[in-house]
Predict the structure.
Amino acid sequence: MPQVFIKTYGCQMNERDSEAVAAQLMARGHTLVADESAADVVLLNTCSVRDLAEQKALGKMSAVAGVARKQGRQPVLGFLGCMAQSRGQELAHGSVRLVVGTQKFHRIGEHLDALLQGRESHIVDTAEEAGSQSTIREHLIDPAGPRAVTAFVSIMQGCNQHCTFCIVPATRGAERSRPIPEIVDEVRDLVGRGVREVTLLGQIVTSYGRRDYPVRDGRSAFVQLLEAVHEVDGLERIRLTSPHPKGYGDDLIDAFGRLPKLVEHAHLPLQSGSDRILRQMHRGYTRDRYLGIVERLRKRHPDMAVTTDIIVGFPGETEEDFEQTVSLCHEAAFDQAYVFKYSQRRDTPAAAMPDQLSEAAIEERHARLLTRVNEIASRKYAERVGRTVEILAEGPSRRNPSRFEGRTRDNRIVIFEGDERHRGHLLRVQIETASAFTLYGIPELAGVSDVEESGSSDAPSLS
Ligand code: 5AD
């Protein structure tokens, strides 16, 4: 049976797509391997959001092809996902024999069969497909393996916002949403397999179902979906990514707190703090409106974590525009900010705008902003020391597997002395110390049973 290696670049949606591909291939009898050097099939699921991501995938593929050539092997090499969608045919040369776009992940099994059996030599499949939003469904959960505690659920595909810097409308197509009952069934099935927390995924989740479900009692389709998912017994936490600031209407802000499973974390991609640049970016809000949303969220819940994405060096960005972004970061006091260097993307309106900044200028502003936002964010971590927080224990710490890690409701990683008995349980943890982006704590044993009584039915024995 073929051995398949899959590597993913980019966002959580790409991770989720790869997981669905892996599950599909395993169901067809393929084996997943962690080392590409002996694999029969090497698939790279790509990202196009910035040039760097594309270069990484291209570099990796040429390294894989080079090693295979030296070994005298001819594995099937394939590009999947966003870069495959936008470049298509041009990627299918030499030993790259499979190119599959973002609406065709579910066809990869058939395509690999055709290639491995020699019925086809090259396949490029980047067509649109009606209903493809409902094909990212299968999860990789090994019933014999450690319990899966968290899972991603894809609720929609595509994006209609057309931000001028962004390639995504071209790679992912127009917005298409899955029906609410289908999503709820998937969540219920996951919970039945041990999952306690789901992250609802989409390019702009707050636009979910706009054309399919009319506003009801003042509640948007997305809030209706949250309410439906919230009903699933045994589910403890709901996260979402990524929303758009324009989607934070009163109904969504009200849902924080009203729906206890919806965690206190709002990602609010800012992109720029300058009204002039926001207009050029086609973001659809102003600085004031953005800050108003942050204020309403924090009023709803004082500990609401607000995180963001920012692009520095958008065409025409002056020092004054940049300073507006810096000052907004101070005003909003972001709990975490991801700062990106503007990257020109093919066929986007911003790529053709005048006054593109030099790489050096972008680098310099990027470094300056990063220092500021990291100072603000690490202060927020330090403020947590001495508090008792609820965490969901996920598994061994990625950095130090002899310890365990979990996340707070507001999405901070907490490392603690734990073991498999803790996995999948809500614990109350006293925070002892903090580093820039990690908390360290000690579980309160008494607190565990408190949480367990109101939460899960299978409490661990910690005595
Ligand atoms: N250049 C730099 N960053 C970008 N992003 C999207 N497009 C670009 C681009 N052309 C960033 C945005 C978005 C995040 C996922 O990636 O900040 O929110």
About this structure: The two ends are 46 Å apart (CA to CA). The chain has 13 helices and 19 strands. Residues 49-50, 165-166, 269, 271, 309, 311, 340, 342-343, 345 surround 5'-deoxyadenosine (CB under 6 Å).
